[in-house]
Amino acid sequence: MGEPLKMTFLALIVFNLTGMAMIKEIPKEKTGILLVSFGTSYSNAQGALDHVEDQVRKAFPDIEIRWAFTSDMIRNKLKKQNRYIDSPAEAMAKMGSEGFTRIAVQSLHIIPGEEYESLQKTVNAFNHIPKNAQTIRLGKPLLYRNEDIAAVCDVLEKIIPDERAGGDAIVFMGHGTPHPSNIYYPGVQYYLWEKSALYFLATVEGYPGLNEIFPKLEEQEVKTVWLVPFMSVAGDHAQNDMAGDEPESWKSQLEAAGYLVKPVLKGLAGYDEIVGIWVNHLKEVLYEPEN
Amino acid sequence: MGEPLKMTFLALIVFNLTGMAMIKEIPKEKTGILLVSFGTSYSNAQGALDHVEDQVRKAFPDIEIRWAFTSDMIRNKLKKQNRYIDSPAEAMAKMGSEGFTRIAVQSLHIIPGEEYESLQKTVNAFNHIPKNAQTIRLGKPLLYRNEDIAAVCDVLEKIIPDERAGGDAIVFMGHGTPHPSNIYYPGVQYYLWEKSALYFLATVEGYPGLNEIFPKLEEQEVKTVWLVPFMSVAGDHAQNDMAGDEPESWKSQLEAAGYLVKPVLKGLAGYDEIVGIWVNHLKEVLYEPEN
Amino acid sequence: MGEPLKMTFLALIVFNLTGMAMIKEIPKEKTGILLVSFGTSYSNAQGALDHVEDQVRKAFPDIEIRWAFTSDMIRNKLKKQNRYIDSPAEAMAKMGSEGFTRIAVQSLHIIPGEEYESLQKTVNAFNHIPKNAQTIRLGKPLLYRNEDIAAVCDVLEKIIPDERAGGDAIVFMGHGTPHPSNIYYPGVQYYLWEKSALYFLATVEGYPGLNEIFPKLEEQEVKTVWLVPFMSVAGDHAQNDMAGDEPESWKSQLEAAGYLVKPVLKGLAGYDEIVGIWVNHLKEVLYEPEN
Amino acid sequence: MGEPLKMTFLALIVFNLTGMAMIKEIPKEKTGILLVSFGTSYSNAQGALDHVEDQVRKAFPDIEIRWAFTSDMIRNKLKKQNRYIDSPAEAMAKMGSEGFTRIAVQSLHIIPGEEYESLQKTVNAFNHIPKNAQTIRLGKPLLYRNEDIAAVCDVLEKIIPDERAGGDAIVFMGHGTPHPSNIYYPGVQYYLWEKSALYFLATVEGYPGLNEIFPKLEEQEVKTVWLVPFMSVAGDHAQNDMAGDEPESWKSQLEAAGYLVKPVLKGLAGYDEIVGIWVNHLKEVLYEPEN
């Protein structure tokens, strides 16, 4: 991850109060991208992150790309496998120390929830550290304003598998959170229903849950349900809570209720169209003036 | 607004470096409530704010209550009528100067939108002013987390006029905003539909608008539509955009489409049950530890 | 204090999402000066502040001038005399509310001590309040960097009364503080000694005190001591601690030790040359780019 | 530098909204010390820093110690020698990532100048980063309040070489700065003169310089001058600007003026008594409540 650092210095000669010359090095403008994910320890899911990096590199071939994972637990787990991934603070501190003057941080989060807020506070804090990159800006998560949500829902429709038959329902599995940003899940459901009464969005840990979906599937006389992760990567939640064989998994619950269930084990970060939206958010922070 | 200030001082005798005694006055703990509204220049709507003040006074009879309006335009308009209402910053600065040590600020906003965010930044800033109230906390707007939204929707069902017949639709008119918090409107719609397919929520300036509601009214074979403000006060938007006689008002548009329209000209702040939710948010900031 | 507010609005017509026109008022650029003093309840000392205002008005005839006092105790005392002076936070909040877009705050403090730091935090906080003046900057106190101190010491020499005879000592009375900025007092003494071994600086509440001066007066074989306030105004400290008749006043102590004592009851703010330095600091924040 | 990390986790079982158990690891309280120096590339001067670490370890045998250098230039120089030293931000980010919950940062600076202020801003910023050590506090530099300065001057007297004869002058060489904190140099001179008229303090880059000392040496009829670094380490400035053989070094200038010059090539960090003051500042942030 990341090419070797190439930085040259300009020399500036400064004369101090007593007339003695001092040499100060001035780094040239140096821009970097920091991609931030919750992180994953699934090698399968790591593939989706590699896919993001490839797309970002294609869009910004001249800008060095770094990674950070926000989850302490996942970083500790990887450390035991001798894979060292930085926290966002470590990554920004290192980049500052290596002479980056401008950093575009792109969150690979879906909603502006607790993790995104925490990253935003970290970025804000780093903008107050004197000896560091002068400008650090944070790209929006996948969902933010009305226009973003509309664009994401257009893309969601495109990633539905071709094998899906007319009356099959799609149930997107979001994470859900006690944080106020959970409102994005019932909110996005509105946008999806404007497209089809057979598209549903439920969450593992928030509202609505799978329970709210059962009566709606019945009302629509659904026979077959496609389960699609509404998460960046198809990690633990997708593998187990969604598609696992345990009786409380969504697949098991839906099968027990008589549905034919077809899980899709691919996270949103695996789709070019979705990554394209994050790339657009990166373009905003790299090329557009702030507010 | 507000009883006369009663504050006594404790005298503290301090000896300075040279042994000379200085007297320092220590103010006793003094708590105040600051109610913050966007503001209104409609005397009718002012009644709803007076109603809030009455309810808050009943709940906290020993705590002095102050007001601030966030809208410059409305404060300037009132100034010309010799009514001087403080901005939130003016109110907090005065309270600090008068010796309040603890201020509970309660936003009468509906969603955590741009106005609420601006108020939050103002509160945060005042918490960094050394010579002011030591603790200033901001109560949540009407809608915040999942539980709040559920509680509000329970109350919304109770404020529906008794005269409403079985098949009549209720269309709540929210404000709407280009700010990401607009997601609350489609999001709350989900909660309302869990109660009845005849409850709708649309916005004047955001998404969804009235246009999104027409096909749904048709699908539900609605004949009569009740228009209810989903705003704190029944001010300009309710009087004109919702219930006005101009051709582009919601009433006119719905009547033109053949519906019988019954507007309710009462803002949410006029209902005891709604004010009760803001009072609960005040109790949280007054009596519960932070986080 | 302050001429009547003259502000005109530009009207901006904005079209919202639904095509309805809204009118937004845009205030023109409007600059104000806020002079901040610890405050005084001595009418005599108030004269020195009026002198500052006159000088500032001469330097910036087109800019409105406001005042704030930082001392709660003095503002409370004046309130009982029906004189209402704002705290710095009140003054900035009012100016923001009245449409000032740029405020130059000038501290009339001598050193960057606790009072100045508190004012700086207040100014910083106000720069984070969204609906307020866009730019608020704080002018440096009288003493700050090496160059300022040198300039002030040049002026101090000029304000020595003409009646002073050759061998008379000058003892400047500073306030002194447990805050680290107390270092300015022994520090400035260095600059004064570079001018004359007969110039002394001591403090009421810090280090050095009068005790440290006695042996030095003796060493210089001084007969007559001029006492000069090294404070903005000749208030309580100058009247009582310096020139009072109580046995512990500096005058009494020096007389008891056999010196002829000549107190000068005029604060630094009473001298044009000193005010000129604060005016220079105002020019910096009004006309020079930040940093 | 630093023993291997030993940290154990407590397991906390959390039940999420859907009843599924999650395991959260809670790190035990874990305290660390971060020593921060400008840095040096002189191996000799590095010895003084090792001496500090030894003393700090003796005082706090159970607390892990880390290092950071604030100078980019020195860290870059060392990197070319394959010595990797963290910047303060890197060190704090790593410590946060490794589970430290409380960090006591001790600046090895002499005055609260630009470098200290920059470190303070970095510490403040890190206290606003959500996923990091909960409490990071910064120990005061060597000189801060009146009491600190008095204590330091007592120690300075003790470190004067025993070989110094009665009439020999001591000239301490401080760094000096255009930052307002330069006032500490003339200020500390006051304290030193209270001890002896033969103790002088001048600076390389600030005020006073060596030029201000010449007339005073003459006045005191000095023959021999001891040059003592008033800096943490005897690095570049001490070796060259103070004791070098170049004509503009202090040694050369003083010799040219006819003095016998005896330079001491040991930084303040090399003396147990001085390190004891920094250790006291560490004790304050580790054991005393904040303000």
Give a structural overview.
The structure is a homotetramer of 291-residue chains. Chain A is 39% helix and 20% strand. Chain A is an alpha/beta fold and 291 residues long. The first copy, chain A, has a four-stranded parallel sheet with strand order 4-3-5-6, with helices on both faces. In chain A, helix 1 links the parallel strand 3 (31-37) and strand 4. In chain A, helix 1 (43-59) packs across helix 10 (272-287), helix 3 packs parallel to helix 4 and helix 5 (146-158) crosses helix 6. The longest helix of chain A is centred in the first third of the chain and has 17 residues, at 43-59. Chain A is elongated and about 65 Å long. Chain A starts with 8 loop residues before the first strand and ends with a helix. Residues 1-27 of chain A have low confidence and may be disordered. Chains in contact: A-B, A-D, B-C, C-D.
List the keywords:
291 residues, alpha/beta, 10 strands
